[in-house]
Protein: CaiB/BaiF CoA transferase family protein
Organism: Massilia orientalis
Amino acid sequence: MRGDLPQGALAGLRVLDLSRVLAGPWAGQLLADLGADIVKIERPGAGDDTRTWGPPWLRDEDGEATSESAYYLSANRNKRSVTIDIGTPEGQSLVKRLAANADVVLENFKVGGLAQYGLDYLSLSALNPRLIYCSITGFGQTGPYASRAGYDFLIQGMGGLMSLTGRPDGEEGAGPIKVGVALTDVMTGLYATVAVQAALAHRERTGAGQHIDLALFDVQIACLANQAANYLVGGTASARMGNAHPNIVPYQDFPTADGYMIIAVGNDGQFMRLCEALGRPEWGSDQRFATNPQRVTYRDELIALIRGVTICRATGEWIELMEHAGVPCGPINTLDQVFADPQVHARSMRIDMEHPMAGTVPLVANPIRMSGTPVRYERPPPMLGEHTQEVLDQWLAVSPTEFAELRAKKIV
């Protein structure tokens, strides 16, 4: 929150954020970190659903739990909260006036859900033809599933990710497993950010806004990456492989004398160095293992041999040996170990922002490092309705008298 930093790359961009939970708010937070003015529209008295998704709760300076959940805090930094009841004609009118002054609208209502309020793309673009309107839904605006609700867990299953995640059949604990964070939501937020900036570039050339139709289902399938290509090219659906890689060997976890470590060999040269570090240089010249395609073919034999060696030393000893040999290797850290890691400290991946209820709030930093327009941390995740009067004054010149009337009618 330093005042001597240059403006963010997206300074001057106005974004009206009608989204809630994670995918939309993630996009909004990223745009806000880059300098955009994000106005988060929330329901009076309730707000974003994630405000109640606790514990844990942020604690105040006396150690008492506040009403701010950790989940909500993770995705709403650098925004301003405005409470408006969009179920009323007066509330709808306010949002329309805000949209007429906005560059971007983010929303994640069900398909057609905002049309009843006159807040859909066709209605708002008629007021503001330069508006970029980004709709995030579970399955998109078209297709047989368009009307369905979509949640990250559901999409991880339907989109194939869970078929690839988990222990193989026949092993203890076998079965499909979801990723430990709502990864599809996060990836959708990232795609939304890219799409908004692409639409802004197009508008800069043509003056025209547009509608962005973004589906969690589509994003999940797109992010299957090499696994999708393996199926499309090879014709066989990959099975769960635990922590192993379908195309690279050895590239997985291995047991040590005191836990586990990851070895991630990406080429034949690294494999030769691994063999030296393990004290088994002869494996490097073994024709079963000399090239990656051969190692994939003889995966089971090689993995058993490596496991028989790695179990003999502690994780820290192996990591030191592997780093000295130039072999990619690392521990499987718990979150307390992550945030105690010296690299995490060196990169300032934890930040602490001033907060009106808690004194300070700990957050994860934005990973983007820009030399000319660095990320700024201007505002902590806002309290519900904290900026309603401020935004209505700045964006719409709503007078104190008019604001008092709106407040009296419980419109804001």
